[in-house]
Amino acid sequence: MTQKVDVSVADKALGPEAYFVDPFTRSGISTPGIYAVRESGRYVKLCENDFNTQTALLEMRNGVQTERVPEIIEDSLSAFKITVRVLGKPYELPYKKLRVSGYDVLRAPSGGSETAEQYILDNVYENCPGVLERNKPYFIVTEVAVGTKIESISGGGVAELNFDLPIGVPGLETEVEVQLLDHSPRTTANKVFAMLGKYVK
Questions:
Q1: Which residue ranges make up each domain of the chain?
Q2: Where on the tree of life does the source sit, at the highest rank (predicted)?
């Protein structure tokens, strides 16, 4: 007897190491980039001067490759719950599942380093490492999936996760609010719903 496995749209688009990004919030995430993870769950860009002035990092941004994937994907749920990894913490709660109708995968080149993440760190100015140390946890984003059309559809239970709460912050009690769904399905377009890279606690 085979065991059913829950798989999110983030997993389907970028693989099992992908992190889900709520497409119904203004995350502002792109690739390549470095983002601090705030207690509210917001992302704040770090070291942007380096990306705007360093030749190597500018070339990296200009060299981002885009792959168009026309297929429709949606969360696969074996029951009324799905496990979603949000910045390293697993949440197994019911939520309204997502359907993505076509998406683009944007990948930053690895440059001259073993990985794209290491290439970014190798090419930031000497003051940026101090900025990063003060702003832990942060995420080095090297790949994102952008949905052409994203729908919040019925299924996977009668609740959704509210990600605008403290998540993945060391020393804080993590709480996730569950809200009943009593509204029509939502739709958004051209939003990031998954990212890959290196999460630094």
A1: 9-200
A2: Bacteria
Residues with Cβ within 8 Å of residue 7, at least 6 apart in sequence: 75, 76
Complete DSSP assignment for 27-61: ----SSEEEEE-TTS-EEEE-HHHHHH-HHHHHHH
* 47: CB partners within 8 A, 6+ apart: 34, 124, 125, 128, 131, 132
Cα–Cα–Cα angle for 124, 125, 131, nearest 5°? 85
The pLDDT value given to residue 78:
55
Q: Provide the token pair at 176.
A: 């996730």
Three-class SS of 120-145: HHHCCCCCHHHHHHHCCCEEEEEEEE
> pLDDT tens, 181-196?
444 578 999 999 999 9
Considering only CA atoms, give the Rg of the chain.
17
pTM summary value? 0.77
**pLDDT value of position 162:** 47
Q: What tokens appear for 175 in the block?
A: 């709480």
Is the preceding peptide bond at 32 cis, omega within 30 degrees of 0? Answer: yes
Phi and psi (nearest 5°) for 14? Answer: -120, 0
Query: Tokens representing 152?
Result: 């919040």
